[in-house]
Amino acid sequence: MKPVIVVHGGAGTIVKEYEDQYRSGVNRAALKGYNVLKQGGSALTAVEEAVVVMEDDTLFNAGCGSVLNEEGEVEMDAIIMDGKNLASGAVSAVRCIANPIKLARLVMEKTDHMLLTSKGASLFAKSQGIQEVPGETLISERSRERWKTNLKPGSNPVVSQIGLG
Amino acid sequence: TVGAVAIDSEGNVACATSTGGLTNKMVGRVGDTACIGSGGYADNIVGAVSTTGHGESIMKMVLAKQVLHYMEQGMTAEEAAEAGLNTMKTRVDGFGGVIVVSRSGDWAAKFSTKQMTWAVVKADVLQFGIYHNE
Fold first, then answer.
1. For A55, which of B2, B24, B30 is closest by C-beta distance?
2. Is the model's pLDDT at B66 over the cut of 70?
């Protein structure tokens, strides 16, 4: 079987002036995952590595650069699944974790569960030696500005995102 | 939201999806990403899917599993991706995008939104795009 990897960086709003950076971001992620595959690595590790690249890129809405909730904080969700045995792990509403996808994989591999959320996910992360990062370090200037704009009277962030994904 | 699907040299498929969610969302709101079958699904017998878009709509459709169901019925990865997104638009007025890889290595990157950033590498060739018809 010839290996293949496909990645996406989301279907939300794309700022025209950042188009080239979006393109290079997904390209880097795809190539990172493909290199894993070319070296004989598993599809599971390839998708994890590709997603980590985008979680670390402030341009994308995941990991560092995530959008903010109504209180101005980052809460992230992630899932990973292995088609070989239908094993899967997920986390939701996690804070202060740089790479939620790595935590999701640990849920899959180190617990009997499918999904850990919020405080439980944080406690599990700590037990696995995943270091917490200050919440502020996950917030990009762009995310903060968007959050502030959406707080203005008359703003409706839900309606303004209809049709954008 | 970001995501990836892949098939390795042994024919194993996998998916991964990660997100910060909806901007200015309610505290505690969880969308499709963490929900198996919605934010992603992978099964060596069919293929793997990762989704992005309006989370509540994707959850109503269990979109990733729905796309794989269409493939089980005989659709190609591309046909199944389009069918899944069309059904979501028709049934729940929801928009989004999916990436798919089949067990035979066929792939698709489809979206019903105005744009979705995507990239694929197959046979050492990199392709990518943002807008429709790229």
1. B2
2. yes
Q: Identify which of A30, A62, A157 has the shortest CB distance to residue B18.
A: A62
Asked if A71 and B41 touch (Cβ cutoff 8 Å), the reply is no
How does pLDDT run across A8-67, given as a tens digit for each residue?
A: 999 988 888 999 999 999 999 999 999 999 999 999 999 999 999 999 999 999 999 999
The radius of gyration of chain A's CA atoms, rounded to the nearest angstrom, is: 17
Give contacts of B10 with chain A, Cβ < 8 Å.
1, 42
A90 to A10, A105, A140, B2, B113: CA distances (angstroms):
19, 7, 24, 14, 26
CA separation for the pair A34, B101 (Å, rounded): 14
CA B3 to chain centre: 8
CA-to-CA distance for B111 and A6, rounded, in angstroms? 14
A109 touches chain B (CB under 8 A): no
Mutation target to probe the A interface, by most A beta carbons within 10 A, among B5, B7, B8 is: B8
Beta-carbon contacts of B133 under 8 Å, excluding residues fewer than 6 positions away, are: none
Is residue B123 within 8 A of residue A34, CB to CB? The reply is: no
The DSSP string of A110-123 is HSS-SEEEHHHHHH
**H helices present in A39-154, as ranges:** 43-55, 100-110, 118-127, 141-151
**ipTM higher than threshold 0.95:** yes
